[in-house]
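Request: Mind sharing a record?
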Amino acid sequence: MFGLDATLTIVLILCLLLACFFEFINGFHDTANAVATVIYTNSMKPTVAVVYSGLLNFTGVMLGGIAVAMGIVNLLPMDVLVDSNPYHGIAMVLALLLSAIIWNFGTWYFGIPSSSSHTMIGSILGIGLAFYFLPGDLGVSAINWGKAQDTGLALLLSPLLGFSMAIIVMFIFKRLIRNETIYKEPISGKMPPIWIRMLLWLTCGMVSFFHGQNDGQKGVGLIMIILISILPHQFSVDSSVNLQSINGNLEKIESLMLKADTNVLAAKEKRLHSELVKHAELFRATTAGKFSSNEVPVGDRFGLRKDIIKVTKGAEKLISGGNLTLSQNEIKSLGKEIKAGKKLVEFAPSWVMILISVSLGLGTMIGWKRIVKTVGEKIGKQHMSYAQGASAEIVASIGIGLASWKGLPVSTTHMLSSGVAGSMVAKKGLKNLQKGTIKTIALTWILTLPVTIILSAGLFLLFRAIL
């Protein structure tokens, strides 16, 4: 397979299976976030709800694009960390996968709604931090701190937004809808009014679709990290992209950069500017007369990825620095060329999308009961009402949809669980929450990042010593 020996082929298959298993766990771990409301309000039978959610999760992955996936890949500067030894890549991905699976499976087993997003990102950051303990100077650049900051901010805000927005939606419901039935506990075996049932069906479907679009993309990003780590030459660039088109993008970036006055740049910015020009020229030389990466020698393809990343990331940093002596129109044009140039390295094969879609969809239909019980019964002191279920789902679907549109990984668990908590508070205040459950969930959320960071870093250093 891909020119690997038997041992590396087996290890690659094992890593891909582990990635699918993580996404499978993600499916049944997070399914509760979508189906708990429709099940606990008698709007859907449990079996129908999980199949419905599973199909929409599958669809969300397939139609969701790859913006979030690339956000995950870009947390680690693969151009810096990947080397010629495939076993170094194996140590990295095995540590990442095992730490994420251990924490995700453990929290599911105890019925605690925990964020798969935090779990994966903590594992990735642990790998990056572990490079500080290896010989050389990789530790300085082993994490894309800018991307990590954006991701961390999105994950931090999601529970706060879910909680506060659910309270606001409940307030709007109370002002606009006077039907007291929707604010009372559902009667066992009795379905809600048709209009609230349809709203709950719609919001359950939206949360499921956007969960696939956001969390499914994280799985796609995870597999791309595996492929780039173990098979850097085969999966570093998209062979379907016209190299001369990319060459045109880089030439325009280089031309605009050469127009800028370098005398006003800081020392670090001057180095970025110099590297940018150098790598644009290297890319041009390597791709001269070639239209597909298949025409480039296998050993040179990862070099193309490095060139693209150095040019585009360097240009982005120079723009954010605010010292470029270019007009607003030129800055805008520069941004368009950067985005176009990234097409060569920001991609995922269709088989990866299908693999993750199936894993997430199947996982959604299995093992959902533990978390559903916590979300539906243990967050608030009362049984979830129709209005509470609808408000939590509306907030979660909008929040996750916006995050996917912006290419930010956000926690479905945090959005929905905090939305349920907010809807409970909106009715009877903080006294309506079960403090024991809230403390357990909050402690788990707080511990997820540090535990997975330490676990993945320790496993990585262990595997690097062994392999």
Observations:
- The mean pLDDT is 85.
- The chain is about 75% helix and 0% strand.
- The two ends are 21 Å apart (CA to CA).
